[in-house]
ABC transporter permease (Kribbella speibonae), 823 residues
Amino acid sequence: MLRLAVTTLRYRTAAFLAIFVAVLLGGALLSAAGGLLETGLRLNAPPQRLAAAPIVVTGDPAYHPPNGSGAAPFPERPRLDPTLTKKLANTPGVAQAVPDRSFPAILTTHLTNADGTGTALAGHGWSSAPLTPYELTNGRAPRTGEIVLDERLADTANPGDRLAVTVGGESRAYTLAGIARAQHRVDVPGVFFADSDVPAGIDAIGLFPANGTSPRDLAKRLDLPTGVKAYTGDDRGVAEFQGIATSLPLIIMSGVFGGMVAVVMALVVSATIGLSVRQRRRELALLRASGATPRQVAKMVIAETMLVGLLGLVLGLLGGRIAGTWIFGLLADGGVVPPQLRFDQGPLPFVGAALLTFAVLRVTVGFAAGRAARIRPIQALAEAAVPNVALSRIRIVIGLVFAGATVAIALSTPFMGPTNAAAIGGPAGLTGSIAVAILAPLVIQRALVPRITRLVEKRGTSGVLAVINLRVRAVQFAAILVPITIATAIAIGNIYSQTTQQKAAVDAFTGNLSADVVVTSTSGGIPPSLTAAARSVPGVTTVSELVRSKGWIEEPYDKSHTSDAWPLLGLSGPVYTGKIKKGSLDDLTGESIALPPGTAKKLKVDVGSQIGVRLGDNALVKVKVVALVEGPSGYESLLLPAQLLAAHTTTGLPSQLLLKTNGTKLDLPAWPGTTAGGRELLGEGLDTGLGVDAWIGYLLAAIAVAYTAIASVNTIAVAVLNRRREFGLQRLTGSTRREVSRMLTLEGLLIAGLGLAAGLITAAFTVLPIAMATRGWPIPSGSVWVLAGWIAVVLLLVLPTTAITGRIAMRSKPMDALNSPVG
């Protein structure tokens, strides 16, 4: 049977090519997902600027809920107690302890050019240069009012030149004291200041062990305060680069991504294999009639499919590294993962991808082969002439179960909060797609209502034949319908779900803030001098600084926000428009806070109570509740004084300035690194918390597009090329090539339209409930061009492929086609 299986490959090239490509793509994507999982578990980020220090001590970058599970990255960089440097320096085995402080700096070419333009850099104290190390190539170390530049920034500048550097939002003149060179790769060039000019605070401490002392052993016996950790090896990158705190986002992404790839691959491969086997009913029936046992027929079908599938799997695994690196690069460019994080893809992701792909392939071909082997020869010959469209009762029940699950998910999603809406409503697209895939022949038959068929039949004989073919060959056309439906449901559902949630989050945030003019800083923050200057501008009636961060309520403990943080909003003026239920925002000064009424009730606190809030830099502050303020349901924030919150952010400054005016045109003073605009700037840089979710959605949409392109082209080619005898008979009975081609075009339009309709209906079970949960009405947000573009993609896949393969199928003479060994 193995020899016979190999022989059949010559005559079923199109069908086996479809299986080969589907498995190849699935193997590549699954190994890429495995690489993302391994990267998330390892979190290796080789240090750059801190590479010379064998041990780096810094604050724990991840928040660990006291009464919950999981972890979340702190949005701000935790600070260390300055006295820790001296304590560590006196530890036995430590030769030197070097403190480091990083802060934003904007370098402009010369003072005459100090208009706010420049390159975003990182400022450091010169004493931290040995942590890289940096070595002077020209000039000397800086004194007060002087700087040393990375040689990549110096350009034509020489020691003694006067340069402008914006630090803390203020542009100041510095004298260039020297030029230094990093001894290895450092992505962000540094500007080094005299230690006396460095802002207070310490981010990290680099430790150099004494001779003969193991860094790992020394790191284990360091006496460190709670919330402070020591890192060695590649783990030191956690101390240098923000965002490398927890593996959860990458683990979630890789799990959803890999799971969806496996499901889509199983549906597409099973549809392709099923189509290939059904088209060989007559051949398999003749084998049975000539003495082959059911087991031998099944073994032959399994052997030939597994042979092609394993070849595709091997090539897919070879391409897995390329796919993984490309996807990881997209995530890094999109800000989901730090670009300094190293993509790790060892042997385990490939082994896991191989086993999972093999299992999917073996199970799907096993079902198809079992059906082909069990059918009686006479029944197989009959179905080869007139295909049986009836579905088994078990298959109908399974399909209805998935359809019922889709409806149940859709009905429950609108009652969820915005945070849980996507997690609850997202699977509806998948369960709906599975339901359509299982019931696809029935869907095609039920969709051919008289109104549609009459419209097609008006096209003449070609239209009549197209309708008849769709009814009779519903099982074969289902193999084309399935990938189009799945891709449409996943692509449209995920894209519009993300755009809807994003728009709802931005609208909820900006809708609660009143401002006519928004000033945004690109130089590290809004300095106090700019706030004071804005208050003196004629026509400005209200000025408020705006600070954004995240935090957790710990005293009393808020169980509703464990690993997911509360949005924190820092204000210094009356610009918040939420309804005040109790207290007053005029008292939001010093160490105070305003809570949502529901949260206050749940925590059993009221105006005048004191609570403990863990801020974004891991500082626990005690604040007094001064007001209970309502916000948009599901998008509530905790309100704090701007100065209090800004002191616990990485920059130490507000990010925006909100101005209310009396309607007159403002003459705002020019300020380095600032941009003034309208309310549209309020949403600029807003962290809606959808970063990972959005990329999961977009990656799934990309998978859908890729599989649709491959599966549709393959299945159409297989289905059309297998109809050579039918086309030959039509031409012998009077039909012209043009009439047969018109029939194929109408079939393609109908099946593409049905696939799009089924996919859009399935996507609606995801998008509309999510819109209800996030926006309050079932109207999604997003460009209509996304839908129009997708429809164009599907038509451009189906129609040209149908036309080209139809031309190939009719290339031979009619009599030769009737005698063809295949089709």
